[in-house]
Every structure is written in structure tokens, then in C-alpha cells.
Automatic annotation (TrEMBL):
The keyword Cytoplasm does not apply. GO terms for cellular component: ATP-binding cassette (ABC) transporter complex, substrate-binding subunit-containing. Pfam families: ABC_tran (PF00005), TOBE_2 (PF08402). One of its GO terms (molecular function) is ATP hydrolysis activity. This is ABC transporter ATP-binding protein. InterPro entries: AAA+_ATPase, ABC_transporter-like_ATP-bd, ABC_transporter-like_CS, ABC_transpr_MalK/UgpC-like, Mo/tungstate-bd_C_term_dom, NA-bd_OB-fold, P-loop_NTPase, Transp-assoc_OB_typ2. The keyword S-adenosyl-L-methionine does not apply. It comes from Frankia nepalensis. It comes from the Bacteria. Keywords: ATP-binding, Cell membrane, Membrane, Nucleotide-binding, Translocase, Transport. Residues 4-230 form the ABC transporter domain. SUPFAM superfamilies: MOP-like, P-loop containing nucleoside triphosphate hydrolases.
């Protein structure tokens, strides 16, 4: 994709998106509602024309090529299976008429695909005789059975419960890898994007904010937007004003590089100690703030504690053993390497 853009009248749904996806790579498209994820996917599928830029598949310009002539498979959030046909027949039909595959070969391919998705035993059931998750597996199987070079998935698991989503995403990724498919996977769920993507493309208001590995996205976010969109809870960001090398805001002052307008720290980068001058790390911490515990949430192996500070509420991730009572006065501290600085326009200072 080179400089891809799409305007709907006055609405700029997509602006100047450039990215290349390697064969066999899975890229997660992540962004809030209306950020242009579906528009980008629809352009790739040929369901929408770009109003700027070029789309190339293996070097071949796709402009003007209709959907059915592109080597792409689409998985939508709302699947439409033929209700009167069995799972096996739904897949077989798609292969025979979509791919013009001989019957015996289509049936064999359909069976193989259902087996790979763990629903071989349901081959003879009609959609009404299956659970939502099983139906979604059939729909995914129908799209993937074609072995298209490019697989486009638009929120393929929305509508399923959390446990099933996690199970299914593991299976989908395993299947995509096994087939060697190149895939774009749209989701607004940051955890899902980080889990499925070899790289994650973060979109905001039609612009590509960052395209990087999940580790880079988390550890070196390109912007404040990315930093606060990814992570659960996301990065804490404190606004301040910089003078004489120090960024100061309500209740804090921290040494900061030129241009800094805000400082960010992940919940796990903050330490929590009983209030007092000696609190915090042995070096005293680069950032220190006093506050009061508001709530403490037990999340499996860890706790997330929300602390009200003069700079606003901050989330702190601590071990499960460190229970703290609401109302407790605490001091928060963070070491210098845990800090991320942002300029006034939201870009991370030091980002490439
Ligand atoms: N056919 C259309 N006509 C006019 N505006 C459109 C059309 N399709 C999309 N848009 C606008 O383009 C922008 C991007 O929409 P898009 O559906 O790509 O976002 P999205 O990130 O997929 O959102 P969601 O997660 O809600 O599906 C939105 O502002 C949307 O209102």
C-alpha cells in the first residue's frame, strides 16, 4: 500500500497509508471505531476504491480489479452460511462454484479444513444445529478453504464470548500459519491485536500511527495515542510544563528532555509504598507522587491499584500479595528507564 487514501465526501476515512506486508505475515489492524480499519480492508478486497494511492499485491497494481478476480478471502463479523446446507456442503459449494474445483477434490478439501478447525465431527450438521462459535468456525473455514493468497478478517470473532474468542483466535492463527496465508486482521481490541499480529498497525482518524511488532508498540509507542490505546490498563500520562530541564505538573517534577510536554509510565513501571519521604526505590525514583488509594482490583495473578494524585488518577500494577485498602495514603515512584516523554503534538520524544 502506497499513500492509500479514501474520502467519503468531506470525511477522510483514510489518509496516506503506506505499508508493506510480507508473504505469510499476519498484520493486525488496530484502532478505535471510525479510525478507517474496515475501509482499508474493503479497499484490499476490492469492495471499495481508494481515492488516493496505490494497492499492490506481489507488485501487481490492483486498481480496477474486481473482488472475484483478486486472490483474497474475506471473513466478516457477520457470517452468512446457507442455513439449509450442512457444514460440509457449505464449504464444498464455495469451492465448487467459487473456485470451480471438481467435486471430489472440493469435498476432500472441505473435510480437511473442517478437521483443521476442530469441527470435523460436525460436518453433517446444519448451521441451526450448531453453537455460535461452531458456526463461526464453519464460516472461517469456508473463507480459508479456498487457500487464497491474502486473507482479510474483519472482527471475525465479535459477538462471541471472551473465552471462545481467545480459543478461536489461537486456532485461526495456527491455521493461517499452517496455510502460509498473508493476513490482515481487523480488531478494536488491543489485546487481540497484540496476540495475533506479527506486527500491529495502529490507526487513528484514518492515519497510520505506527506499524511495528507488538513488543515495539508496547515498549516504544510512537505517540501518546498509541501509548494510551495499548495496554490494560493503558499507560499513565501526566501533563506538565518544562523549564530548566524539569517537567513539572500538579504534584510532580521530573528531569525531562527538551520538548517534553508530558511524561508517561506504564502501570507496572510504578512502585507503590506507604506514604513518606523515604518511600519508593533506593534511589528515590526519578518520578515521585503522593496519592490516595481509590480502588484495588484483583486480576488473577496481579492487582491493579488506582491511586488518586494531584496529577489525576494513576493505575499501578502490583503483585497479588500486596493488598492495599482504599483510603491508604501512598507514595508512587518510577525509575528513569520506566519513563516515556511526549512532545506537545503527542509524538514520543526519541521516536524514529
Ligand atoms: N460508505 C461510507 N460513506 C460515508 N462515510 C463512510 C463510509 N464508510 C465509512 N465511512 C466513514 O469513514 C470513517 C472510517 O470508517 P471505518 O468503517 O473504516 O472505520 P472502522 O475503524 O472500521 O470503525 P469500526 O470499528 O466502527 O468498524 C468513519 O468516519 C465512517 O463514518
Amino acid at each position: 500500500m502506497v499513500g492509500l487514501g479514501r474520502d467519503f465526501g468531506p470525511v477522510r476515512a483514510l489518509a496516506d497509508v503506506t505499508m508493506s506486508v510480507a508473504p505469510g505475515e499476519i498484520v493486525a489492524l488496530l484502532g478505535p471505531s471510525g479510525s478507517g480499519k474496515s475501509t482499508l480492508l474493503r479497499i484490499c478486497a476490492g469492495l471499495e476504491e481508494a481515492t488516493a494511492g496505490r494497492l499492490l499485491f506481489g507488485g501487481a497494481d490492483q486498481a480496477g480489479i474486481p473482488p472475484h478476480q483478486r486472490d483474497v478471502a474475506l471473513v466478516f463479523q457477520h457470517y452468512a452460511l446457507y442455513p439449509h446446507l450442512s457444514a460440509l456442503d457449505n464449504l464444498t459449494l464455495a469451492l465448487r462454484y467459487g473456485r470451480k474445483m471438481p467435486k471430489a477434490q472440493a469435498v476432500a478439501r472441505a473435510r480437511e479444513t473442517l478437521d483443521m478447525l476442530g469441527i470435523g465431527a460436525l460436518a453433517r450438521r446444519r448451521p441451526a444445529q450448531m453453537s455460535g462459535g461452531q458456526r463461526q468456525r464453519v464460516a472461517i473455514g469456508r473463507a480459508l478453504a479456498r487457500r487464497a493468497r491474502v486473507v482479510l478478517l474483519d472482527e471475525p470473532m465479535s459477538g462471541l464470548d471472551a473465552k471462545l474468542r481467545v480459543e478461536l483466535r489461537v486456532e485461526i492463527v495456527a491455521l493461517l500459519r499452517r496455510l502460509g496465508s498473508t493476513a490482515l486482521f481487523v480488531t478494536h481490541d488491543q489485546a487481540e491485536a497484540m496476540a495475533v499480529g506479527d506486527r500491529v498497525a495502529v490507526l487513528d482518524a484514518g492515519r497510520l500511527e505506527q506499524l511495528d511488532t507488538p513488543d515495539e508498540i508496547y515498549d516504544r509507542p510512537a505517540s501518546r495515542f498509541v501509548a494510551t490505546f495499548v495496554g490494560s490498563p493503558p499507560m499513565n500520562v501526566l501533563d506538565g510544563a518544562r523549564a530548566d530541564g524539569v517537567l513539572a505538573g500538579p504534584g510532580f517534577a521530573v528531569a525531562a528532555p527538551a520538548g517534553a510536554a508530558a511524561v508517561g509510565v506504564r502501570p507496572e513501571g510504578l512502585r507503590l509504598a506507604p506514604a513518606g519521604p523515604a518511600a519508593g526505590s533506593p534511589d528515590g525514583g526519578a518520578l515521585r507522587l503522593d496519592g490516595t488509594v481509590v480502588v484495588s482490583e484483583r486480576l488473577g495473578a496481579e492487582r491493579v491499584v488506582y491511586v488518586q494524585t494531584p496529577a489525576g488518577p494513576l493505575a499501578v500494577r502490583i503483585g497479588a500479595e500486596g493488598a492495599v485498602q482504599p483510603g491508604t495514603a501512598v507514595t508512587l515512584s518510577a525509575a528513569a528507564p520506566a519513563l516515556t516523554f511526549f512532545a506537545g503534538d503527542g509524538t514520543r520524544i526519541g521516536a524514529a
